[in-house]
Amino acid sequence: MSDAERWAKPIEQITGAAGHLEGRKLTGPQQGFGQLWQKTYTVEIPGHDAEEVIGEWKAHYGDFWPRHSKFNAPLAGIKPGEIGTIDSMQVLSTGVMVIYADEESFCFMTPEGHPFSGWITFSVLDTPTGAKARVQLLIRASDPLFELSFYFGTGKGEDAMWRHVLQSLAAHFDVKAKASQEIVKVDKKRLWDNFGNWRRNAVVGRKPRAQGS
What structural domains and CATH numbers belong to the chain? Predict the structure, then answer.
């Protein structure tokens, strides 16, 4: 695989995706609102190598999520340029775009309206005893409403979700392990120029489901 094939092609906005994502732009940390965080979650999977683990992670990615949230993987799989959609507790509808994928890692970027703006990188490294799987986020809350919700528990819920994902990944290999986390506040400033992002909030702007759907 060439370097160019590992990266998604630049786009102005998402097209051809589910209705709630159609026309939305991708957002890095500088397009968000809240304080900037780097969150790193890891789990050890002894007795297995990185290539095996990353392959299974890609193939069954959504299976490792908690029951209250559903990740609908792209039909083509975890490949650059593909869009995955997310539904959480029938309240939040959003998604991610795969912007990078190779033999050892893959990376998602969030769209407008997602709870946070930034990147989520998934990687697996070989260690002397086996494999170490890692999820690393570089993110800001996307708007003032999500920033406020993080202080009332959403942030801790996000941490618990990623620990669950890694522990479920380990369990897939019959390994019972506890995931660790490291959280660093990179920038305490809020980007007030992006205050108006709340208009794209994926919860506020969610259309109610029709009865019987």
Answer: 3-11+20-187 (3.30.530.20)
Task: Report the residue count for the chain.
Answer: 213
pLDDT bucket at 93, cuts 50 / 70 / 90: confident
Asked if residues 132 and 43 have their Cβ atoms less than 8 Å apart, the reply is yes
Is the pTM higher than 0.85?
yes
- Quote the CA–CA distance of 136 and 42 in Å, as a whole number: 9
Contacts of 161 (CB under 8 A, 6+ apart): 65, 66, 69
- Containing H/E element for 4? helix 3-6
**Maximum Cα–Cα distance across the chain:** 55
Interatomic CA distance for residues 158 and 173, integer angstroms: 24
Report percent pLDDT > 90 for the chain: 77
Residue 203, pLDDT score: 86
